[in-house]
């Protein structure tokens, strides 16, 4: 993008803007019969079940444009939805995107958001098939709906974990939250003294986890390849503590988590200590990691023991045993949800 | 709703609010396998094609809460999406709803919006299967996605009209726009003098068209019953002029419309004259009527001649003949889009 150029959105109009943003893009998914341009898109999911999820991102609540590049924002807005589709053990196929933008944004700014959206579409192999673009009085609003497909018997809910199942976590937790703390700190320093240059250099991993997270497409493919069917699954978006509570509540079970079993990246460990935070608390309550939390039948333990980036974190227990954290020191703490509260 | 009661949204939290708003609601569509509560909803559209559409409504742009009852707003937000599904000659099956609300709204206010949403779901026989509820810094934001199904050969696009086809319109046009003019006038009078009582009594029809429009479910059923397959179709949301231009552009054709063939309700005629507006201009450019604009093969003319509430408005002509209005006085005017401009 040429940073100098500013085209007012009014010069294109709504239909012109949509045409401008979407022209030349080819449909890639074979189930997409018709994309943007009609009253509705047409999809052919014959023989498969469709899964559908939606997320809304609001400026000032879910993102701060002071430190969020627009392209990353577009990318992340797609990823958080695809993460929900993968968490059903399904394959994302199409998305729709609605954007509300105020006139403080130029056409070039909206193009950047769409660059990020299309980059995510390409990486995950999904089609953008519809949407709505309208002017907003105030902040930027992005609402995305994702559709995916799965074989009925393999779609994995969060309500089907059973006592004795093994609790697993992919990747690592807490890094996205610590990335946010770094961005917030640098923002505050900048607001206090605009001459200060941000010190972000050594925090690449944490910032990437916050600004450009990925959904665990690879894991769902790994399950398929290794003929592993989780008994229950969800993505970790609000924080392990809060999300595990949801999974357990809906499955009518309890669980324990071993502190040793919660994967934390060394950079997140370091950053937590620098912020005088407890690393395990960041991992339990941080949110926005978009890793997968899943349970497997204990008989499937051998199938995952040597799979990369999957960690055995605990076990499902009867509901009356509640949710507990077994600390490294041998203590047992009840787990309370301190996940992201939107209100 | 008890007008006196005000429960702060913060007392319920996001998950509590969703649970509160959706509890006790049963799923009614047989293709809905799983509704709200997991990472994604599960739908079984086996053997049918899925159609998907989305619309975003922003406070201050698409609605004014000064004269829009919240229940009507929820109802209309659903209807505008279902209208797009019917315009594909398909049957709506599920919707997802994302809402951004600021803390100036109480739980009771959000309940009213959901009452309207559920009323529309019930009337049209669709399931609410997912969504997102988050706090907004400023205005109210509603983003709805609708999914429908259709038989591949019967799904009707807007790009398939051909020269010689008859142009048809359902219902009547311009009333929603005139309803809006009345509401805006009364708002202005109220702002100038808050003691004045609004004079809305004699405008029931126009106000209903603006505040509680319906989608033409009945028409799609009538087509089916009479074995009529339109050659092209779309809904009239931006105004006949603008929407006909889209249909013609995508079909690579032109069209003429007979002024006599454009249905206008007597109340709309009267109101237009009172506002010193040309009724045909209101009908051509008003928007928000959510009627259907469709074309049929001239051989099917007999099938519609005696169907209620369908009007023959014109004919599809070669592209080079452009878009023209044949006035009652025998003049020919080029049709220009003056539909709703969002920017």
Question: Could you give the topology of this structure?
Answer:
2 copies of one chain form a homodimer.
Chain A: H1 13-22, E1 32-34, E2 41-43, E3 49-58, H2 70-86, E4 91-101, H3 107-124, E5 127-135, E6 141-150, E7 166-170, H4 175-192, H5 204-211, H6 217-225, E8 232-236, H7 240-251, E9 253-258, H8 266-274, H9 279-285, E10 291-296, H10 301-305, E11 310-318, E12 323-326, E13 332-334
Parallel strand pairs in A: 4-5, 9-12
Antiparallel strand pairs in A: 1-2, 3-6, 4-6, 7-10, 7-11, 8-10, 9-11, 12-13
Structure notes:
The first copy, chain A, is of the alpha+beta class and 343 residues long. Chain A has 2 domains: 146 residues, 60s Ribosomal Protein L30, Chain: A (2-Layer Sandwich), CATH 3.30.1330.10; 169 residues, PurM-like C-terminal domain (Phosphoribosyl-aminoimidazole Synthetase, Chain A, domain 2), CATH 3.90.650. Chain A is built from 10 helices and 13 strands. Chain A has a 7-stranded mixed beta sheet, sandwiched between helices. In chain A, α2 packs parallel to α3. The C terminus of chain A is likely disordered. At the A-B interface, α1, β2, β3, α2 and β4 of A face α1, β2, β3, α2 and β4 of B.
């Amino acid at each position: 993008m040429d940073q100098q150029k500013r085209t007012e959105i009014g010069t294109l109009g709504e239909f012109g803007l949509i045409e401008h943003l979407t022209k030349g893009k080819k449909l890639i998914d074979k189930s997409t019969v018709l994309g943007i341009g009609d009253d509705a898109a047409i999809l052919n999911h014959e023989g498969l079940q469709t899964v559908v999820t939606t997320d809304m991102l609001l400026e000032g609540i879910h993102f701060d444009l002071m430190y969020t590049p627009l392209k990353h924002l577009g990318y992340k807005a797609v990823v958080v939805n695809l993460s929900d589709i993968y968490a059903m053990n399904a394959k994302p196929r199409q998305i729709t995107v609605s954007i509300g933008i105020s006139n403080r944004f130029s056409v070039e700014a909206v193009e950047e958001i769409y660059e990020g959206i299309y980059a995510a579409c390409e990486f995950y192999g999904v089609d953008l098939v519809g949407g709505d673009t309208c002017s907003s009085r105030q902040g930027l609003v992005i609402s995305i709906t994702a559709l995916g497909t799965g074989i009925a018997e393999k779609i994995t809910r969060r309500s089907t974990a059973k006592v004795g199942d093994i609790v697993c976590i992919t990747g690592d937790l807490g890094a996205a939250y610590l990335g946010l703390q770094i961005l917030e700190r640098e923002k505050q320093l900048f607001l206090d003294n605009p001459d200060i240059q941000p010190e972000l250099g050594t925090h690449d991993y944490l910032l990437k986890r916050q600004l450009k997270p990925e959904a665990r497409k690879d894991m769902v493919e790994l399950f398929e390849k290794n003929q592993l069917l989780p008994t229950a699954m969800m993505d970790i978006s609000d924080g392990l503590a809060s999300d595990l509570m949801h999974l357990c509540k809906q499955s009518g079970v309890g669980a324990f988590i071993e502190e040793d079993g919660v994967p934390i990246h060394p950079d997140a460990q370091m950053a937590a200590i620098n912020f005088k935070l407890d690393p395990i608390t960041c991992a339990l309550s941080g949110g926005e990691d978009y890793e997968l939390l899943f349970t497997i039948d204990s008989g499937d333990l051998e199938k995952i023991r040597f799979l990369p980036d999957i960690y055995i974190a605990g076990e499902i227990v009867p509901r009356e045993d509640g949710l507990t954290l077994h600390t490294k020191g041998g203590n047992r703490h009840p787990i309370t949800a301190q996940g992201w509260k939107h209100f």
